C-alpha cells in the first residue's frame, strides 16, 4: 500500500502572543509536557537574571542553569550539569546562543526542549539544528525539533531592535532560497519538497508584504510565526534547503572571511538575498526586497554593515565554497570577479540610494 500521508516532526505547542511568558508553567502542565513541574531552565549569565526574576514564580519546580556562551563546550557542560536531575524537559530561555546550547544539551541527555526565545534574530528558534562554535570555527549539529515554542511578543519588543530586525532579513531571504531550489530542480533535477517549499515561501512572502514594523505586535506576530514555520519547513525537508541558498552562502562567506567583523546573520542574509534576486534577473523583486529591508532599517549595501564593495566581491566569489554541493544562482552563473563587479554596479543603480 502506498504511504498516504506523512507525519511532520513539529512542536506540540506553539504559543505566540503578548504575555505568553507569564503562563509558561500552566501551558507546559496543561499540555502534559511537564507533569511534575520539574524543569531545567537554561538562561544567560547577564540578561538572564532579570528574566529569571520574572519567570521564576510561574515555574516553582524549576532548577536554573547559567549558560557561559555559545560554544560546543558550553553546551556539553550544560548537559553535564543537568544530567541526573530527573527533569521532564529542558527550557531554553534567552537569545540564539542560549536556545542553541539548550537544544544541544537536551538532545544529549534525551529530554525534550521547550524553546522560549527572547528575540527574533533568525529562524533557528524552532529548527532541528543547533549552531555552536567549536575548535574549527562554527558547526551545525542536528537535534530534534523543540517540543514547544513559546514567544512572548512583549518580551521580544523589549529586546534590542537590531536583534529583532535581523529576523526580518532571515525570513525574507526564504524567497531567494526557494528560487535557488527551483533553479536546482530545473537545471540539476534536484527534488523539491513541495510542502517545505510552500511553508518557507509563504513565511518569507508574509514578512515581505506586511506593512507594519517591529514596534507593533501585529507585525511581530507574523514575523515570529514566519520564523517558526521556516524552522518546521527545514524539519519537513530534512535539511536547510527551504531557507538557505545563495543568500546564506554569501552570509557564510562574510562569517568565514571576516570572522571578527561579521554582522548579524539576518542582516547578511537579507543583503545576500536582495543581491541574489538581482543576479537571477528578478530585478523588480530585488528592488522590492531592498525597499522592504531599507524600510526596516536593514542593510542592502555592504557599506551599511562596515564592508567595502571590494570585500563584498570577495565574499560573493568565495560564497559557493561555503556549501559544497548546494546549487544556487551563484554556482549557476559561476561569475568572474569582473562580472561580480559589473553586476554589483548594476544592482546599486537598480535599487537606488
Ligand atoms: Zn538563516
TrEMBL record:
Superkingdom classification of source: Bacteria
Database matches in InterPro entries: G1PDH (IPR032837), Glycerol_DH (IPR016205)
Keyword annotations: Cytoplasm, Lipid biosynthesis, Lipid metabolism, Metal-binding, NAD, NADP, Oxidoreductase, Phospholipid biosynthesis, Phospholipid metabolism
Name of the protein this chain belongs to: Iron-containing alcohol dehydrogenase family protein
Amino acid at each position: 500500500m502506498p504511504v498516504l500521508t506523512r507525519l511532520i516532526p513539529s512542536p506540540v505547542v506553539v504559543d505566540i502572543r503578548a504575555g505568553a511568558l507569564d503562563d509558561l508553567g500552566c501551558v507546559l502542565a496543561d499540555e502534559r509536557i511537564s507533569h511534575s513541574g520539574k524543569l531545567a531552565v537554561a538562561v544567560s549569565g547577564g540578561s538572564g537574571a532579570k528574566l529569571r526574576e520574572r519567570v521564576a514564580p510561574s515555574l516553582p519546580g524549576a532548577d536554573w542553569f547559567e549558560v557561559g556562551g555559545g560554544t560546543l563546550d558550553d553546551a556539553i557542560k550544560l548537559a553535564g550539569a543537568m544530567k541526573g536531575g530527573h527533569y521532564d524537559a529542558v527550557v531554553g530561555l534567552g537569545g540564539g546562543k542560549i536556545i542553541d546550547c539548550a537544544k544541544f544539551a537536551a538532545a544529549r541527555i534525551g529530554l525534550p526542549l521547550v524553546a522560549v526565545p527572547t528575540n527574533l534574530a533568525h529562524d533557528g528558534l524552532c529548527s532541528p539544528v543547533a549552531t555552536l562554535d567549536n575548535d574549527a570555527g562554527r558547526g551545525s549539529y542536528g537535534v530534534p525539533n523543540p517540543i514547544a515554542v513559546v514567544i512572548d511578543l512583549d518580551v521580544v519588543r523589549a529586546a534590542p531592535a537590531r536583534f529583532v530586525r535581523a529576523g526580518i532579513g532571515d525570513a525574507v531571504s526564504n524567497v531567494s532560497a526557494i528560487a535557488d531550489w527551483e533553479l536546482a530542480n530545473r537545471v540539476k533535477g534536484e527534488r523539491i519538497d513541495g510542502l517545505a517549499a510552500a511553508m518557507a515561501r509563504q513565511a518569507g512572502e508574509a514578512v515581505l508584504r506586511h506593512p507594519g514594523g517591529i514596534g507593533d505586535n501585529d507585525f511581530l506576530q507574523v514575523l515570529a510565526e514566519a520564523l517558526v514555520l521556516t524552522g518546521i519547513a527545514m524539519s519537513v525537508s530534512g535539511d536547510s534547503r527551504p531557507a538557505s541558498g545563495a543568500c546564506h552562502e554569501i552570509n557564510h562567506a562574510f562569517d568565514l572571511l571576516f570572522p571578527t567583523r561579521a554582522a548579524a546573520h539576518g542582516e547578511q542574509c537579507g543583503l545576500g538575498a536582495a543581491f541574489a534576486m538581482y543576479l537571477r534577473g528578478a530585478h523588480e523583486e530585488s528592488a522590492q526586497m531592498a525597499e522592504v529591508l531599507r524600510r526596516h532599517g536593514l542593510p542592502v549595501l555592504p557599506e551599511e554593515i562596515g564592508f567595502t564593495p571590494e570585500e563584498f566581491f570577495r565574499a560573493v566569489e568565495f560564497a559557493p565554497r561555503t556549501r559544497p554541493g548546494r546549487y544556487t544562482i551563484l554556482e549557476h552563473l559561476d561569475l568572474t570577479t569582473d562580472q561580480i563587479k559589473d553586476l554589483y554596479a548594476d544592482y546599486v543603480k537598480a535599487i537606488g540610494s
